[in-house]
Prior knowledge:
heterodimer, A: mainly alpha, Helix Hairpins, 3 helices, 0% strand, B: mainly alpha, Four Helix Bundle (Hemerythrin (Met), subunit A), 8 helices, 82% helix, globular
Amino acid sequence: MTVPIAYYLILAAILFSIGVASFLIKRNIITIFMSIELMLNAVNLTFVAFAHMWHQITGQIFVFFVMVVAAAEAAVGLAIIIAIFRTRQTLNVDQVNLLKN
Amino acid sequence: MQLALFIIFGLLAVAGAINFLLQRHPINSALSLVVVMMSLAVLYWSLGAEFLAAAQVIVYSGAIMVLFVFVVMLLNAGEEERTHGSRAAYFAGVPGATAIFCLLSFVFLTNSKAFGSTDLTSHLTHTVNNIAEISQVLFKDLLLPFEVTSILILVAILGAVVLARKEQ
């Protein structure tokens, strides 16, 4: 039993849309950051599916680099979140409005 | 067998993502994201990418999510409260995400014939395995980008230390 590649791509589209929706709906800055990771995972799934489709290893190499960059981004982003919490004493993005007005 | 794997773990990933969206506490969201990443690792394996399946479990659900859980515990993050801005984002976010999903699945389904379907048997009978292939490309053709990522990681470590340090 084989699975059409399009099913994998649609699964990735579902995960990406849920990531976009939670990025817009969530108010906690840590959860917003996690929804970025969810979107990155969805895109990685499309890369692996296309690598399988073309029988090329390059797509998997790209996913490896995306993972490395995501790890670096998570470290820096969480440090920024800690710095924001130190100065503003809140994790709610509605209360981080220093540049507003 | 591959179809059964896809259905089980695809549904598990979607269920985890929806639970991620619905939970109000950050730690519950983090744990359901771990479920999504683990089931994605199984899907990578079913697509013939064993190395990425292992890296997904170790790097994503191991390292990155532990970092998130540590920060949630460190900042003592409680349940998020609903505000006026969140209701506006709710009305904008759900239709926008649905529109993105409809557009993407329309494109994928109309080109479904061109994509073809998975064929794991050709991967299993292949003489060179996945990790050998990846290391051939990564350490020969892409050696310079691979080394540059180590500098990127170093800069990220230094940046994290500088940003999270207490100011004197």
